[in-house]
Each structure stands twice: as structure tokens, then as C-alpha cells.
Amino acid sequence: MRKLLILALVGLAAQLVDGALGMAYGLTSSTLLLFAGVAPAAASASVHLAEIGTTLAAGVAHWRFGNVDWRVVGRIAVPGAVGAFAGATFLSSISTEAAAPWMAAILCTLGAYLLVRFSRPLRANRSAGPLRGRFLGPLGLVAGFVDATGGGGWGPVATPALLVSGRMEPRKVIGSVDTAEFVVAGAASAGFLIGLGTEGFLLPTVAALLVGGLIAAPIAAWLVRIVPAQLLGATIGGVIVLSNARTLIRAGELGGPFPSLVYVLLAAGWLVALVLSVRALRRTRRARALADAALAADAAGAVPATPARDTAATSVEPATGGADRSRQLAAAVEG
To answer: Which alpha helices (DSSP H) does the chain contain, by range?
Structure first.
């Protein structure tokens, strides 16, 4: 009972992170399960089976709020399912000793990617047109394979790539990726079922992760309004890197002062990423404040001094110019 309670807390923490960032449920839960001594294939299999329930709930919620672009879902989910199935069968075919460093290396790389991703602001480019299948297909294939072999990675690979493209609203990026993940999680679970059999799934672990994730879902919706995603992403990225670096150091049988030096360097990099994320967050907030101030000033100046009809008809022009100036101010601060 004590172990199941801990696992439920793992699922709760992972869903809180995923709900706030739109990614990292698999990364967080797999890292914590590996840290607790669960075999890599069993950890990934159990996490993906639990994700079938959590992603279904998330997908329905996103659909109801209009956060899903079904064209993107269709073009990324099928290649993602193929990649996830291939990754699951690959991970199932190698030994636990060989899988642990492989999985830790993937998780460590993705954790470092989170650090880089959330230490700087994203640029939008929505005038570039809709996303094409020749981009979405390979992205889904790679993200699905990494997700299954690393115990997580669908969100950290797919979500930033779509956000950086700037061709979708952030809410639709998160909603579409989360909805497509239901198909990916199902394909990965099928691959693990073929490769490991039913004994490869730790059903009590799956149930505990699922319960914790479902409890955390409404809390995550509140958390994303309180804790800045920029800080949370950098914090979780550092935890993932440090946790999996321990496995890699053990696998390399490195002794002497080398492990301590590695931990110091990683901790220093984590601190730098946190400082950069705080700076990026402040710049973004400053840009928004300047934009709001410019809009408010121009809106006040747009009120006609007399009730004459001709002045009222042209009063909207200063407000339009103010919107342009506010966008220029925001771009200058962010740049």
C-alpha cells in the first residue's frame, strides 16, 4: 500500500507537470520509476498503458474547448503510432542491463532539451502558412519512436517543434499533440504486449499512475495559471538530467572525482538555465506591459473631445496606430 501510494504521487506529479507544460508526463514518471528501481521496459510499458487513460481524458477536454486541429492530429498520430510500436518492440528485445543506459541517455538528452527550450522565448511565424504532411509525418515518426524507447518524449519532441514553427496557436499545439498521444500510447502498449506479454505490465503501478494522473488533471489546469511554464519547464528539465546522469555514470563505471565533477557541471548548467528562464519571463512580461500601456494610452487619446460625428468616425485610426506601435514595442523588448 505504501508503494502504491508513492506511485500515485508519482502519477500526480507527472500529470501536474504535463498539464502545465503540455509535455513531460512520460519523462517525469519514467524517470521516477527508474529511480525507484523498476526495469526500463516495464517502466515504459506501464507508463504508456496508464497514458491511454490520461491522454483520452485530456483529448476529450481539449476537443470540448476547441483546442484540437484534427488535420494536424491525423497527420501526426499515424506516423507516431508506427514509431511508437517500433520503439516498443525494440526496447522489449534488449536486456535490462543494455536498456537502462540507453533509456537514461534518451531521457537525459530530452531533459537537456527542456532546459534549452524553456531558457529562451519562442518566436512566432504564423504568416508562413499551414503545416505540411512532409513535416508532420517524420516528426510524428521520430517522436513516437523516442517516446517508446525513452519512456517518454512525445510531448518534448513534438510540442516544441510545432511551437517553434509559429504556424499554430499554442493552445492548439498542446491540444493536438495531447489528443494524438492517445493513439501513440495505444500503439506503444500493443508493441510492449507483443514483446513482453502481459507480465511486462505492472498493473498495480499502472493503476496507481492512472489514479494520480486523473486526480491531478483539474489541479494542473489551475497550476498553469499560477506557476509560469517557463520556470516549471527549466526546473523539471534539470531534475530529469541529474536523475538520469546518475544511471549513466554507474553504467560507465566511472570512479574517483569524475562523478562529483559531472554533478557540479550539470548543477551549474541547471542554474544558468533557470537564470535565463527568469530573464526571458521578465522580458516577456515587460513586453506585454508596454503593449498594454500603449493600447491604453491610444484608446484614451482616441476618445473624441466633441460629440461631432466626423471626429467620432475617425477616432478609430489612432487606436489602430497604437496597436501597431504596441506590437513594435513588444517586439523590441523581446528582441
So the answer is: 2-21, 25-35, 40-64, 70-93, 96-117, 133-150, 154-165, 170-196, 203-226, 229-251, 258-301, 309-313, 316-334
